[in-house]
Amino acid sequence: xxxxxxxxxxxxxxxxxxxxxxxxxxxxxxxxxxxxxxxxxxxxxxxxxxxxxxxxxxxxxxxxxxxxxxxxxxxxxxxxxxxxxxxxxxxxxxxxxxxxxxxxxxxxxxxxxxxxxxxxxxxxxxxxxxxxxxxxxxxxxxxxxxxxxxxxxxxxxxxxxxxxxxxxxxxxxxxxxxxxxxxxxxxxxxxxxxxxxxxxxxxxxxxxxxxxxxxxxxxxxxxxxxxxxxxxxx
Length: 234
Fold this sequence. Notes:
- The protein is an alpha/beta fold.
- It has one domain: Alpha-Beta Barrel (TIM Barrel).
- It has nine helices and eight strands.
- A three-stranded parallel beta sheet has the order 1-5-6, with helices on one face. The chain has a three-stranded antiparallel beta sheet with strand order 2-3-4, with no helix packed on it. Strands 7-8 form a two-stranded parallel ribbon.
- Helix 7 runs parallel beside helix 8 (190-199).
- The longest helix has 19 residues, at 117-135.
- The two termini are 31 Å apart.
- The mean pLDDT is 88.
């Protein structure tokens, strides 16, 4: 599939997690803390410790946009989650040889200010195990990324080692906004950078414009363009 003798890689290929992700992969002792509730459009939304995801579900302007999406072709695929075969078919259409798979809804669940570190770690572990299984159907073309719980640096380091060494993640994906008020250059994160060097793995940053965290994009949740622009600064 190489183009003009060069292979093509998608370094930010999103997959939509299935609704049963947490039921199937989350440590059973935490499953009661992630439930589902309907939004104003009748769509079932995840709720983590009482926080409905994503935070903009109650914004009228965003709800109108969602109602249009619900009527768009292909939305049923998003509703049920992205199966591996759909990703491979899309890659074939676009001429992509290899894709590095990133999270979609899981980032809203994990990157919450004040979230109990053990729960954040359990959700990171669940997603990492799920994406590894997802990629196993075509490991030569689908490469997993890894999530880590930034609420506790020791747990983040442990999950980074597990994701890379045990599951084969080829990058660690962090949010570009602050978690618990700590900027990325805070010395708090030094053990994680050292671990990435030890593992010889890249660290990727991907914005989350609608996190339950204190950042600029939270001021513009009713405006998709502004919230994205402010929520993805790097």
